[in-house]
């Protein structure tokens, strides 16, 4: 098992190991204590993993309650959120009790926002069960729900008290959900580590413990320097600005990972055209994304993408921060005007 220590506004450990789910009660008791544990999960994960977690929590003296909602992004809304906090209140959770998010990024984001706001903040544990949640959303403290006008528009920065990543849970993921997470893993390789990128080339499934640990360390290092997302943390958005455009144009039918893959290719191509990056970066990136069955191109035009991207919340006045790769393992933030963004889209597609 690997342990990564995060020191942000809260200090906590991320434990990454195989078959650690049956030990969750012990780890949670040691990290946060408390009397009641409220498991928040979705209906798919519930059928697969709640029983193991519940058993372990009870064996460690917890009173266990559980809230289950229908899986999928469409549940990450104000109505489910209000339902969850009512559930916590009716069950009289106090500030020393604990919310346990068991699931992917949807569960983690929403349970995290409930934990951040119920009684102005109670104990919070993340148990990620998708690759995306393991390498990205469970670490770093971003929590949120969606509004009708856009994704993640209401939320809070709220770090967990411990993250327990049992990567054997990833065995039951649908291949396309696993691949979505691969896009984020490859992103870390491009922005921060050639060594990680090379490991991805050898097959992400073959080396999960090391690869997840490496991604968590990269995210930890960035979050520790810019917890509240005012600068450096934006590096994690490599491929995401154009990717969000692709997702939005498709009415969210194209998944996040696929959209990010397309976004990474487009921005890399545009960076090469600007003379800031070499052609071989694009070739390696294509090869790596291909190995994970991720798409490389979109049929949406620069005009279509441009109009939806202008409504992205990450757009800061007239300037947009794009993440551009200089080589595999190094990327920088590059501010462009909205006019330049249009040129970049034309050049990257
Ligand atoms: N907070 C952050 O920093 C951050 C970062 C990136 C993404 N996100 C958010 O994460 C969300 C996407 O997360 P996701 O990709 O994990 O999606 P998700 O939580 O919807 O999970 C995808 C699907 O996999 C199923 N599933 C989960 N674990 C499973 C398992 N072990 N076996 C079988 N099926 C399983 C779920 O029920 C769901 O149907 C988005 O809402 C996004 O905004 C947040």
Bound molecules: nicotinamide-adenine-dinucleotide
Helix content: 40-55%
Strand order of the largest sheet: 1-2-9-6-5-3-4
Mean pLDDT: 96
Structure description:
With 349 residues, the chain is α/β, with parallel strands linked by helices. It is 47% helix and 21% strand. The chain contains 13 helices and 11 strands. The protein has helices at 24-32, 43-59, 78-90, 105-117, 131-137, 175-192, 194-201, 208-225, 240-249, 256-273, 279-291, 302-309, 338-348, and strands at residues 2-7, 11-17, 36-42, 63-69, 98-103, 123-128, 142-147, 150-157, 162-166, 319-327, 330-337. The strands form 3 sheets. Strands 1-2-9-6-5-3-4 form a 7-stranded mixed beta sheet, sandwiched between helices. Strand 3 (36-42), helix 2 (43-59) and strand 4 (63-69) form a beta-alpha-beta unit. Helix 5 (131-137) runs parallel beside helix 8, helix 6 (175-192) packs parallel to helix 10 (256-273) and helix 10 runs antiparallel to helix 11 (279-291). The longest helix has 18 residues, at 175-192. The N and C termini lie far apart (42 Å). The mean pLDDT is 96. The protein binds nicotinamide-adenine-dinucleotide. Residues 42, 44-45, 48, 71-73, 76, 103-107, 109, 129-130, 132-133, 136-137, 140, 142, 151-152, 169, 172-173, 177, 180 line the site of nicotinamide-adenine-dinucleotide.
Short description:
With 349 residues, the chain is of the alpha/beta class.
